[in-house]
């Protein structure tokens, strides 16, 4: 799961960078496409990590709770994964 969290963090960095580029030139279709692709990759990584949390807890943590943990309790999640 640590690898999935790192994958998400990298996808978030790429999406943020693509978003900044697109905001600086909103008429540029290539930058819009790059942002859309980066955001899609971020979403996939997020979903993959959420599913892994559900699986690791044998369903005791559901998908909605896993997503909330990733969004709102990132530091605690990183600490827990660091112990593994």
Written account of the structure:
The protein is mainly alpha-helical. The protein has one domain (about 1-84). The chain is about 85% helix and about 0% strand. It is built from four helices and no strands.
Main features:
mainly alpha; 84 residues
Write the layout of secondary structure elements.
Blueprint: H1 2-24, H2 29-56, H3 63-72, H4 74-83
Helix pairs in contact: 1-2, 2-3, 3-4
Largest sheet: none
- End-to-end Cα distance: 9 Å
Count of discrete alpha- or pi-helical segments spanning 4 or more residues: 4
Beta-strand content: under 5%
Gross morphology: elongated
Total domains: 1
Helix content: over 70%
Structural class: mainly alpha
Strand tally is 0
Offer a concise description of the structure.
Helix content is 85%, strand content 0%.
């Amino acid at each position: 799961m640590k690898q999935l969290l790192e994958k998400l963090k990298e996808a978030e960095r790429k999406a943020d960078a693509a978003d900044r580029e697109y905001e600086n030139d909103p008429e540029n279709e290539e930058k819009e496409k790059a942002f859309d692709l980066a955001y899609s990759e971020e979403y996939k990584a997020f979903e993959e990590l959420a599913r892994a949390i559900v699986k690791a807890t044998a369903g005791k943590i559901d998908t909605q709770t896993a997503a909330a943990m990733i969004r709102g309790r990132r530091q605690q999640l990183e600490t827990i994964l660091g112990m593994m």
